[in-house]
Amino acid sequence: METISILILAIPLLMFLLLGLTGMKMSHRTAGVLGCLGMGTVLVLSYYTALSYFFSGCPQFVDEAGQRLQVVLWNSTWMQFTETLVIKLGFLLDPISALMLIVIPTISFMVHLYSMGYMRDHHGVYEHGFQRFYAFLSLFSFSMLGLVVATNIFQMYIFWELVGASSYLLIGFYYTKPSAVSASKKAFIVTRFADLGFLIGILVLSYFTGIFDFMSLTSAPVEGMDGVYHVSEQTALGIRSIFENSAVPVFMGASVLTWALVLIFMGGMGKSAMLPLHIWLPDAMEGPTPVSALIHAATMVVAGVYLVARLFPLYLMETAALDFIVVVGALTALYAAMVACTQVDIKRVLAFSTISQIAFMMVSLGVARPEVHHGVGYMAGMFHLFTHAMFKALLFLCAGALIHAIGSNDYTAMHGLRKYMPVTHVTFLIGCLAIAGIIPFAGFFSKDEILTACFGNSIVWYVWMSFVAGLTAFYMFRLYYLIFWWKEHKVADAHHTPHDQPWTMTLPLVILAVVSCVAGFVPFGTLVTWNGEPMFAYDGVFTNFQHLDWSVASISLLVAIVAIAIATAMYKKENPLPAEMRQAMPRLWNWAYHRFYWDELYMWVTHRVIFDKICRPIAWFDRHIIDGTMDGFARVTQWASVAIRPLQSGHVQMYVWYYLIGALLLGAVTWVCLL
Amino acid sequence: MIFSNILIYFVVIPLLMLGLLFLCRNMKQIRTVAVIGSTALLALSVYLIVDFLELRAAGNTDIMLYQASWMWFEPLNIHLAVGVDGISVAMILLSSIIVFAGTFASWKITPLPKDFFLWLILLSTGVFGFFISIDLFTMFMFYEVALIPMYLLIGLWGTGRKEYSAMKLTLMLMGGSAFLMLGILGIYYHSGPDGHLTMNILEISANNNISHGWQYFLFPITFVGFGVLGAMFPFHTWSPDGHASAPTAVSMLHAGVLMKLGGYGCFRVAIFLMPFAANELAWIFLILTGVSVVYGAFSACVQTDLKYINAYSSVSHCGLVLFAILMLNTTAMTGAVLQMLSHGLMTALFFALIGMIYGRTHTRDIRLMGGLMKIMPFLAVCYVIAGMASLGLPGLSGFVAEMTIFVGSFQNDDMFHRVFTIIACCSIVITAVYILRVVGKLLFGPVQDKHHLELTDATWWERLSAVTLIVCVAGIGCFPNWINEIIRESFMPIIEVLTK
Fold this sequence. Notes:
The structure holds 2 protein chains of 2 kinds.
Chain A: H1 2-22, H2 28-55, E1 70-80, E2 86-93, H3 95-118, H4 130-148, H5 153-171, H6 178-209, H7 214-218, E3 219-221, E4 228-231, H8 233-244, E5 250-251, E6 254-255, H9 256-271, H10 280-283, H11 289-298, H12 303-310, H13 312-317, H14 319-340, H15 346-367, H16 376-406, H17 422-436, H18 442-457, H19 459-484, H20 503-518, H21 524-527, H22 543-546, H23 550-571, H24 577-584, H25 586-593, H26 598-644, H27 652-674
Antiparallel strand pairs in A: 1-2, 1-4, 3-4, 5-6
Helix pairs in contact in A: 1-2, 1-4, 2-3, 2-4, 3-4, 3-11, 3-16, 3-20, 4-5, 5-6, 6-9, 9-12, 9-14, 11-15, 11-16, 12-15, 14-15, 14-19, 15-16, 15-18, 15-19, 16-17, 16-18, 16-20, 17-19, 17-20, 18-19, 18-23, 19-23
Chain B: H1 9-23, H2 27-57, E1 65-73, E2 78-84, H3 86-105, H4 113-132, H5 136-157, H6 162-189, H7 201-207, H8 212-229, H9 238-245, H10 248-273, H11 275-301, H12 306-325, H13 330-361, H14 372-375, H15 377-390, H16 397-410, H17 415-425, H18 427-443, H19 460-478, H20 481-490, H21 492-499
Antiparallel strand pairs in B: 1-2
């Protein structure tokens, strides 16, 4: 198991180095095939690891009482700061990292395969930089896998930065396009700003506790086994008491632990595009579509959710921090869903939908409490992470197929494509049904659990999130109808009619569509829970059905169906209803269309305030005041020397005069002093 | 016998090179001498670090290894005293790497290649001499040997307002030296009880004879004296002009090594010899350096000349070096030395690349260039790597250094230190802003100038120069712990006198 786990990280890294250093010497095809083979191997190895973690029943993975344990497969010192503050690089296997070991390689492999078809034009010519693309994909896969298996918070931070950098490189893949360059820059800087919070959070946490390691923060070792731990509230309580007994337990009205946790969460807000740090994600759609599917829908953007889940026992100690997460998540969910209803760019709709769905996961973690249904919120958040990764990657890959066929992101150029692209049509519809939460597609089960968790916490969040779920169904079907139905479109380009894609692109679509149909049946309650104890016993394929809370489920189903019905009425055929709706609430529509002017606000702050009011004055001050002073010294010296130069004129008569005057003055002074 | 000491060869080899260079008649011979000499230095410093580690592993716990001392001027008790600890070994390795890379970066220097290399080698003699000496007088002498050639190198081979810049740089650094001279004399006259005066750092520290009152006076002036070379705010303004005018190899050596002399002197002389005043007065300089970290970064955001951007970025990064030294704890100070190494390698890489780009496009104004990634992919990729190192991407050296500094600085118990640590942390965002701004404008986007389309990518010597530096940057970034441990244990004596 140890060798396998090393290989899971080593293969993508080696693939990155290989393709990055020698890719230009290879043919495009070789590079692509190598990349796919590498990722395929990782897929097999990590499936083996994850499945044996969940199902082998080894005593190091699950104890007699059925509690799933945390196993550190290996952990080696990378950098030593003090005796206890050590950055290690290791591999932690526990329910959530095993879950991610399934999600990341699956989506990554699908994207690797899909890109073999996507990254070429209609004549089958590979795009410029194809090898580089695969190198970056490998780098990203390596970083993301390293992030989820981190054994300590600093390892997570290291890989956190690396995923940010690979995201930067991939968004800016078309580097000659100015919009792609500025989008990549924006993504990096916004997430960097969030990471500053993360870093300070780590500093605060490590200063008080003296440790980086997750196991010492949230778990207790299992006796008799080396490197095996179980989640323990006692440890988290111990951490809290360290903070409570410190010299300054409270800082500006909140406990220092809350501050640390909120600051760490800020890192998550950046990566997971929570309000107000969401602005980079819609722009990140400038990257190639497979990248959007992999990084900006399925994996990297859920890193923030993963971070909170990883430190969840600590967050439980400070419910104020959890409440903060709920508020941020709920606002983001609503905001992004409203904006998604108005956008015309297919990828932007999906981007906002991603933001909204991640916010669902955040809310779910935020409302989770162990006393409410065994912490169903935690399980639901992770469940939704899993199902969302599948159906959102599917939707993005479908969008990629459409863009590939039409050559535009704008769905006003698409309308009525169902006849030309049947496979894409069906798979896209499945994705829409899944995200809308129609039984029995994947999204139904996970979203229903989230709503149950909200219901257990507060009726406000339940109503709020149900409304957002309705909006989700509405905007997804609006998108669906506008692309595949609406009015029949006469395709302007006579050279080719849109058609379905080569098998490398179709296969991932079909696989992901099948997964989106069945993923809801995975009995998450028995696999992934906040402390590893199963919530209920596994009882056949329909376990999840038996544990549904039908009072919640039927309402959410009803909401989804009503929303879809409205969307059908408005967008299936060309009709005046959408325009009427727009006129009924012009201001709201306008604000939503302009994404509530967040980008303009940021532009104003960065350009008008930071650049013009801070950077320029400082640069001016440096050149003119500080350097001016230094030059001033030189000028004064020069002036003084010029001023006294005439004294050394070489005229002897003058020297006699100086002598006489000097002698007289001296005499006078002496005389006055003696007097 | 003087030649039985390994350290002395770090001065002897450059001096031999100087002699041989005098005899050279053509470019080929000059290059041969320069390449052989710098390779020998590199090999020697690698050998030194291996041997040093073996001695330490064998249980040698002296503060300085390979110590030797030869009387030079008896009436004043001046010795040529040499000795190295882990920090000096690391700095020597850094210097020889940069001299090596710098040799290849100035492969086609014109005019007067012979004279250029003469002065460059003389400069490196001073640098190596400074890092091996433990006698204040010889230390100061080598320090001056390193500074003076800079005037000629910039004044003759520079670009732009070279005379002005050369004069400014030399005068400001000389001003620092004046402070330093005063400080060294002050230390000397209080170095030992009843007339047993000495210049040897270890002896002065062991004597512990400098009264607290004198420390209050001597600490600030020595710190400022070295701080000028370390680009401490507000004495940093020589740096932008000086770097902008200097030829490539000189910028590399200056930013890569010479600025490190400042930081090195600060803890080796100012803090080690005046620990009481260091504890008492550190906060003043902490404010200055904390400001310069953010200030330099903000200034870099609006510059348009590539060299100015990197000069201001150096102000920010070197500010972080002094900032960390002043935190006066092992982790932060270790971070400071790591940052010196990291900044040295990465800035040398930056200046080398800027020189190579300038050599092709004949402009350093980022507004006039664009899309270089398409035209010269090798140089552009190297530039991106250098940028990523600068903004602290894990896996490259900058991250290791910055994180060590931040974690170490935050370990101080009081609010003042922590607030300043957080202020310094903000630089990671601002650094990202200016680095990505340059990368975006210079390398990405459409090609700005049609004439640039005909330009060629790097030649073999340029590739060698850049790859050497990148390998070192990535080496430290991926496997930081061995160097971290060497440096950490070398700080023990300094921490010991600080906590006494």
